[in-house]
Structures are given as structure tokens and as C-alpha cells.
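Supplementary Note 3. Input sequence used for the single-chain structure prediction.
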Amino acid sequence: QNVTQTVEEEKPKPPTVQEIKQKIEKYNAKVTNCLLMKLNDDGTYTGFIKVHLKLRRPVTVPAGIRPPSIYDALKEVNLAEMTDKRTSFYLPLDAIKQLHISSTTTVSEVIQGLLKKFMVVDNPQKFALFKEMRKDGQVLFQKLPLTEYPLYLRLLAGPDTDVLSFVLKENETGEVEWDAFSIPELQNFLMILDKEEKDKIQQVHRKYERFKQRLQQTLKEARGKPG
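The predicted structure, written as C-alpha cells, is reproduced below.
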């Protein structure tokens, strides 16, 4: 009689404090920029990660407020709550933000922390954190679950960002779910698209105007030559 049993996959056991200590010592020995990891007495540890921002769509931020000061950062003042006015703009493509986090900091908390630093008021669910890896000359992206711990991944991979890096991107779920955006956000998107369209039209006009001028100059020079 054949009996089929369902065998659950054994989850890897969490590393011991001693194992973490050894990994941190190995990690710190490779660090060249003073961004070391530090082991705490309770077994947790802290360190730094760098996140590349590769956002293709505009984000929503408060309008008409001053940039955050050192006082705001120390007192954790949320300037976004001081005004109801909103505007949209594009964050610099591939900007890099450095975060000091703990081993207990989740992907969800990293996303929320990044949005807070840039005063982005969009729903955090619109964004996702990816790990970028290079293998056999290819760049591979893998979306991280919200409960993952980025600092542990950094510890395992080592400090070399060519081996592993973190990227914040839009949370692509196929087609853009426009219902998730508010009316002011959609209106701002239309304004941005209208401006981009006008810029493109001007670029084409300038291109053909330069071509026309060169062509007219060539014809003028040709008429002045005999034969």
C-alpha cells in the first residue's frame, strides 16, 4: 500500500547571537566607508543600507512649505501635516538615500521611512522595495515581501553593493489602478503630461528649424558657386 504524506518544508532556524556576531565581524572587516554594523546587548544589531529611487511616475508632496530643518528631524516634526495643499513632481531618477536601520526594521517600515524623508504623502502601498542582484552579466530584480528584514539581507550579502543593492520602485500590479489616486492627483498628472507634451513639441520645432536654416544656408552657398 502506497501512502503519500505531506512533508512541510523545514524553515531555517534563526541564527544565534554568536553566529550574528561572527557575521558582523566578517562584514565590518570588508567595510571601507566607516558604515559599520553594531551588535547590541539584546542580540539585535544596527547598520546602514542604501536605497536607489527608480520611480517612473510623479509623487505627491505638500505644496508651499519650507524644506525640513535639523530641528524638524530631531523633533520628528511632520511638515506634511501642516498643510492640506498638494502638488506632484518627479523625484530625481536613481537618487540614492542612505538609511540607518535596525535588524528588526521591516521592508514596510523602510518604505514608510523613505516616503517620510522625501515628504511624500502617497499611499505606501503604491511602492515596493526590490533587491537588485547581478549574475552572469545580467541584472535581476526581486520584489521583497513587506515582512522581510533588509539589514539581514545586507549582512548576508556583505557591504558590496554590486552583489546586492536595494531599489524603491512603483508597486507594479499590471495596469495602473487609476482609482487608487485622488482627483487632485489625477489633475496634477494631466498638468504634467500637458507640460511634457508642449516641451516635446518645442523640441521638434527647434530641431526642424535648425535643419531648415542649415538647408537654406547650403542652398545660398550653392547659388553663389559657378555652374
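Residues 1-9, 66-77 have pLDDT under 50 and may be disordered. The longest strand covers residues 45-53.
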